[in-house]
Specification:
3-stranded parallel sheet; about 45% helix; 3-stranded antiparallel sheet; binds glutamic acid; elongated; 19 helices; mainly alpha
Length: about 500
Amino acid sequence: MTKKVRVRFAPSPTGPLHMGGVRTALFNYLFAKKHNGVFILRIEDTDQTRYVEGAEDYIIESLKWCGLNVDEGVGMGGEFAPYRQSERKDIYIKYVKQLIDSGDAYYAFDTPEELDELRNKAESEGKIFAYDQHSRSQLNNSIALSKEETDKKLAENIPYVVRFKIPENEELVMNDIIRGVVKVNTSTLDDKVIFKSDGLPTYHLANIVDDHLMEISHVIRGEEWLPSMPLHILLYRALNFEAPEFAHLPLILKPVGKGKLSKRDGDKLGFPVFPLEWKSPEGEISSGYREEGYFPEAFINMLAFLGWNPGTEQEIFNMEELINSFSLERVGKAGARFDPEKTKWYNQQYLKTKTDNELALLYKPILEKNEISAELSLIEKVVGLVKERATFVNDLWEQSWFFFKTPEEYDEKTIKKRWKENTPELINTVGEILETVKDFSSIETENAVKAWIEKNELGFGPIMNPLRLALVGGSFGPHLFDIIEIIGKDETLKRIKLALEKIKK
Ligand code: GLU
């Protein structure tokens, strides 16, 4: 790559960032880092009617949580500041003028009511109205009007928009890194508005001007922008700008494999579609991966595989490995099916790789919420024993509460199945044996109990199952003697005594 790699993530603050948006940011980030390039955050807020309070902060916080550190842009500053389009208003005017002067754009005075009428009329005839090369000469614009008429309207401050004049009947041949050659005949395109009556450019113009001025080398964005590529290429040409390279990422599909995963799917289908929880200005709450207990590394690893694959069997990639392995050539064209179960699996894999200390620190506040204060060293031991069984840090409580709390209830089903006539006597003896064990380690207590079982040919089932019931309240938990070691002698004997009092068949 000869040109310096500079890529941008350019969201519009019209709501929370969908996970598809995070995937776009991630692929831009990976591409930038892989090529020692620059990752830019630009906020595209020229459509003021769609502006949503809090969305920009949400975007910034999401990128931070995901570890997608911005090199330049909103919140960071940089050589090409400002990076918020609403602060760049004055910059665009010059280019609008340039396009009008060169004949590539024109003033259009049609009122919204007139356009609605044209749309309705076309619809009633089973057609679709388009403002394009076929209709423009009959409409209320500077192409159809004489120069004097146009100047008069401008002098009278009649509201207008500026439209881009699509060249007629030209076969455009474009290249997309992911899709290869894309061909479009310009006669199928309409004359998009590039500058609005409110004095702001539309997305299309602002996007092209900024990509040029910010020296963007590659535009990496979602497939939904592919239909805009011809217009963008034409705008670059008309402005005498060199166009960047384009890569349009495949859609993310619903878990059923059909249809685009939309913002509205989320909680409806039982999983978050947003990185962080979002509270809309109206107070509606949508769940987020962070609040659901996902590790950002797991979320990112999962997202990387939505459309990209390394070409090997390896599935677990940390950010550094992703950067090293990533290439746009390995991004597919086909839609990528989102799998919420696989997402959980990723989280479980990352949970397993956390050290006992890391997990203990994450678990401590959950214990505190349950009114348990325990030494970190003890928590570390416990998480070491149960982490294999957890998908989320929150699961640790369900998997290990009995290390910290004496059970107060005993599972009915287990009682029915495991607590026999002679069980109290046997468990009482186990208590006596354990009382004599000096070194109360897992090994020593196990040896003592097993030796007694073997000597008396009692069988393990009739002892170990009710003993577990007595110590944890059911038939769950890790190796029983590990539990015994951790809760210690006094607590073990206390629990046996309590169970003998409380469990009645
Ligand atoms: N502002 C556009 C969006 O919200 C950016 C599209 C692009 O990357 O060109 O997705």
